[in-house]
């Protein structure tokens, strides 16, 4: 299993919106960055990810699961753009803020710290476990 982080502006599509989609989940569409797209191309069904509120909040608020591997992004006819489907698994008991992640030396090399603009990014297993612990949430 691999681990990832998905960013979304809560005013556009937040954690509660994904939860409302239920088991069906949601196509993670609209990504127009090659590195983020390539990360989605690496994903497998069952991979887990953090759901991160960007712009406002700046915090990890929940855990998601990849439910469908890459397919053509339905929001464009351009064949260069793929996406995956994800569903909400569980919320964090305590949201983990970007500020707390940046202040913790264990995360100095984390993509979230080094490349804050990348909307879909990998997370190492060590980072995954440590952030779940900070969020008081089972991995």
UniProtKB/TrEMBL annotation:
<dbReference type="InterPro" id="IPR015947">
    <property type="entry name" value="PUA-like_sf"/>
</dbReference>
<dbReference type="Pfam" id="PF01878">
    <property type="entry name" value="EVE"/>
</dbReference>
<dbReference type="InterPro" id="IPR002740">
    <property type="entry name" value="EVE_domain"/>
</dbReference>
<feature type="domain" description="EVE">
    <location>
        <begin position="2"/>
        <end position="133"/>
    </location>
</feature>
<dbReference type="InterPro" id="IPR052181">
    <property type="entry name" value="5hmC_binding"/>
</dbReference>
<protein>
    <submittedName>
        <fullName>Predicted RNA-binding protein, contains PUA-like domain</fullName>
    </submittedName>
</protein>
<dbReference type="InterPro" id="IPR047197">
    <property type="entry name" value="THYN1-like_EVE"/>
</dbReference>
